[in-house]
Design brief:
By secondary structure, the chain is mostly helical. The protein is built from 14 helices and no strands. Helix content is 88%, strand content 0%.
C-alpha cells in the first residue's frame, strides 16, 4: 500500500517535471498557442454571430482574422511610435535623477543620517544600467514585439481553433458516454464563459483606466504620458504588482521632471486613489468572483509563469490558472484541489449548488427513462 502511494507521488512529480520542462523548452510554440486560445475565446461570440447570420464558416473566420489584423496593426503602430522617444529620453532622466539624489543626500547630512548609505542604495547609474528599470521596460516592449513577430503563427492557430469549435462538442458527445460527455461539455462551456468574461471585462477596465491615467498625466504635463498609459494598460493584467509598477513609474518621472516635490506627490496620491477605486470597487462589480484565486496562489503563479514565459507569462497567469481551476472543480476526484486554489468561499458554494441540482436533474431524467422503458 505504501509502495503504491510512493509510486503515485513519484509519477505525479515526474509528470509535473516533464510538463514544466516542456513549457519552458517549447515556449516559442506554446506561448503563441495560449495567446491564440485567449484571442479565440474573445472573438468566438462574434464568430458565432456571423454564422447565425448565415455567413459561411470559412468567410466568418476570414472576417474575424481581418478584425484581429486591424487591431494588431493599430497596436503595433502605437508601440513603435511610443518606444523611440522614451528610449531617447532615458539618459537625460538619468542625469537629472543623479542630481536629485545629490540634493537628497546633502539634506540628509543636515539631519545627521547616514547619507552615504542612502546615496549608494539610490545610485541611479547602477539602477538604470545594471538593474531593472530600463531593462525591464525594454524587455516588456521586446516581448510585445516578439508577439507581433509570431503574429502569423498566432493567426493560423486562431483560424484552426475557431474552425474546430463548431464540431468539437458533437465529437465529444460521440466519443464519450452521455453523462461523461455532458460533464466535459459543461467544463468546456464554463471555461469559455468565465475566461471570456474575465478577459473582456479586464481589457475594458484596463483600457478605461489607462485612458484616465493618460489624461491625468497629460493634464500635469508629465513626459511620456502615452508610454505610461500604455504600460498601465498592460501592467494591470498582472495582479497587485502590475498596479504598483503602473503607479510608481509615472511618479518617478514626475519626481525627476519637476522641481517641486509637491506636484509629484499629488500625482502619486491621485494614481493610488484611482488604482484602489478600480481594484476594490469597479473590478469586483464587473468581474465578480467566478475567477477568484488564493492570494498565495496568485503570487506563486506570477513567479512560476513569469519564470517560464517572462512578462507575457505573468500577464497570462490568471487566465491559465483559472482554466486549470475550472477543470479541476468539475471532477469529483480533483475538486478538493480546486477548493484549495479558491479564495472566496461563496463562489465555491455556488458551484457546489449548481452541481447538486444538476445531479438531482440527472436522477429525475434517469427515472423518467426507466418509466418509459417499463411502459414500452
Amino acid at each position: 500500500m505504501k509502495d503504491s502511494k510512493v509510486l503515485k507521488i513519484a509519477a505525479i512529480l515526474f509528470i509535473l517535471g516533464v510538463t514544466f520542462f516542456a513549457l519552458k523548452t517549447l515556449q516559442e510554440i506554446l506561448l503563441p498557442f495560449f495567446i491564440a486560445v485567449i484571442i479565440a475565446f474573445i472573438f468566438e461570440p462574434f464568430f458565432e454571430l456571423l454564422k447565425k447570420k448565415k455567413v459561411p464558416s470559412f468567410l466568418a473566420i476570414i472576417i474575424v482574422i481581418l478584425c484581429i489584423v486591424i487591431i494588431a496593426n493599430i497596436t503595433s503602430i502605437f508601440v513603435l511610435t511610443s518606444i523611440g522617444p522614451f528610449t531617447a529620453g532615458i539618459p537625460k532622466y538619468q542625469d537629472k535623477f543623479t542630481s536629485l539624489i545629490e540634493y537628497a543626500t546633502n539634506s540628509l547630512k543636515n539631519f545627521g543620517f547616514d547619507a552615504n548609505a542612502f546615496k549608494e542604495s539610490m545610485n541611479l547609474k547602477n539602477l538604470v544600467k545594471d538593474s531593472s528599470v530600463q531593462g525591464w521596460i525594454t524587455s516588456l516592449f521586446t516581448s510585445i514585439a516578439g508577439i507581433f513577430g509570431d503574429f502569423v503563427l498566432i493567426i493560423i492557430y486562431v483560424a484552426f481553433i475557431l474552425s474546430e469549435l463548431g464540431s468539437l462538442k458533437r465529437r465529444v458527445l460521440r466519443a464519450f458516454s452521455e453523462e461523461r460527455a455532458r460533464t466535459i461539455a459543461k467544463t468546456m462551456g464554463d471555461i469559455f464563459l468565465d475566461v471570456r468574461r474575465y478577459i473582456v471585462g479586464k481589457t475594458l477596465i484596463n483600457l478605461i483606466h489607462a485612458i484616465v491615467i493618460g489624461i491625468i498625466l497629460w493634464a500635469f504635463n508629465v513626459d511620456f504620458y502615452i508610454v505610461w498609459a500604455f504600460l498601465s494598460f498592460l501592467m494591470n493584467y498582472i495582479p497587485t504588482i502590475g498596479s504598483m509598477i503602473a503607479t510608481v513609474l509615472p511618479f518617478m518621472t514626475a519626481l525627476v521632471q519637476f522641481d517641486s516635490f509637491g506636484v509629484a506627490i499629488v500625482i502619486l496620491i491621485i494614481l493610488i486613489v484611482l488604482a484602489n477605486v478600480v481594484g476594490n470597487v469597479i473590478e469586483p462589480q464587473v468581474l465578480g468572483d467566478k475567477l477568484d484565486l488564493s492570494p498565495i496562489l496568485l503570487l506563486l503563479s506570477l513567479i512560476l509563469w513569469g519564470y517560464i514565459w517572462g512578462i507575457m507569462g505573468m500577464i497570462l497567469s490568471i487566465p491559465i490558472m483559472s482554466m486549470i481551476k475550472i477543470v479541476l472543480m468539475n471532477f469529483e476526484s480533483t475538486r478538493p484541489v480546486a477548493i484549495l486554489m479558491s479564495y472566496n468561499q461563496s463562489s465555491i458554494t455556488d458551484i457546489k449548488e449548481k452541481q447538486k441540482y444538476t445531479h438531482v436533474i440527472k436522477k429525475i431524467l434517469k427515472g423518467k427513462k426507466k418509466d418509459d422503458n417499463s411502459k414500452n
